[in-house]
Amino acid sequence: MDLPRFLIGDNSDFPDTIFIIHTEFPRFVMNLESGEVEWMEEFDQQDQKELEMEAENLMQQAYDFYDRELARYDD
Fold it and tell me: Are 42 and 51 in contact (CB under 8 A)?
């Protein structure tokens, strides 16, 4: 099964928080309010170098995805 690259998640234990889940490598869950990221991967040194270069771009893509989804709800 193919999953969307990003998903929106919520949880009743965190009623004021919205999460963005990135389903491709490197998988992560981002708290939209705080910007905190929980990585769901273990990284070796080579992965860590790539991640440092890509992380900011991935976070911006997550925010853009959320903004796009909200705009679609408004339509």
Answer: no
